[in-house]
Amino acid sequence: MSLQSIQQVGADISGAEQNNGNSSGSQQKPQTVEEIQRWLARELAAFLEIDADEIDIQEPFANFGLNSIAAVTLSGDLEDWLGCELPATLLWDYPTIQVLSRHLAEEVLAAK
Question: Tens digits of per-residue pLDDT, 71-94?
Fold first, then answer.
């Protein structure tokens, strides 16, 4: 699935959440790989000050020029968003958005 397809699904979900009265602060916890991919792409793009559609979900995080502080910060923000404890080394253990989101959806969220 391309990032543009993922973003379109995200727009569809966001529109549905707004219609249901949900704000981004109170949105439901993600349940799918695609939802996590969208979130990671948006957050990484915001950090890099680029458009989310410029993020290749198969590109290693290291290639985006993230330093250790940025990687740990992103991991912490992800931990807050998911509502579960994650290791600070998460972006090194799962080096792409695609691999990380699959791990989170299949292992971490499924265990909740």
Answer: 999 999 999 999 889 998 999 999
Give per-residue burial for 94-107: e unless 16+ CB within 10 Å, then b.
Answer: bebbbebbebbbee
Task: State pLDDT tens for residues 25-48.
Answer: 445 566 789 999 999 999 999 999
Q: Is 49 exposed, middle or buried (0-12, 13-18, 19+ CB in 10 A)?
A: exposed
Query: 41 with 97: CB under 8 angstroms?
Result: yes
Considering the entire predicted model, what is its pTM? 0.71
